[in-house]
Design goal:
single chain; about 140 residues; alpha+beta; three-stranded antiparallel β-sheet; 8 strands; about 15% helix; about 40% strand; elongated
Length: about 140
């Protein structure tokens, strides 16, 4: 071999940067992030007004600061595609209480019985989660 000849060197191989393994806590999303994803997912269903057949309801709604206040209007029997949080609101939060008072034989009021009457609901057409918040006939009893 000639010492004057250049010896070809093999290029150095640099290993690719190794991505650190993420722990379970890093992969999991926070409960707030999961709730936000669920609430903003679009769902399809039928609006039902229980007070008046063919009735309309209008309201403004905002659950998260990052989402601007928005107006909604729904007509009984129509099919809508809306965020999950609006569907949940229509079925869980649109009710009014009906109270009655029970008296004993002396005429004193002993307890107050309240019943929730649903004003409207949102019937799911393409998702199952809604089954947990359909209107119910909850009766509450309170002592006075």
């Amino acid at each position: 071999m000639n010492t004057n000849q250049e010896i070809e060197k093999t290029p150095e191989v640099t290993p690719a940067p190794v991505e650190k393994k993420r722990t379970r806590t890093q992969i999991k999303k926070s409960p707030k992030e999961l709730a936000f994803e669920r609430d903003t997912r679009m769902v399809k269903g039928r609006f039902r007004c229980h007070e008046l057949a063919g009735g309309t309801i209008r309201f403004h709604f905002r659950k998260y600061k990052s989402i601007p206040l928005k107006s909604y209007e729904f007509i009984d029997g129509q099919v809508y595609e809306i965020p999950y949080m609006i569907a949940e609101h229509l079925s869980k939060n649109c009710w009014y209480p009906v109270h009655s008072y029970l008296q004993d034989e002396n005429g004193k009021v002993h307890s107050k019985v309240g019943q929730k009457v649903s004003r409207c609901s949102f019937e799911p057409l393409d998702f199952v989660e809604m089954a947990d918040y359909r209107p119910s006939d909850i009766v509450t009893v309170e002592k006075i």
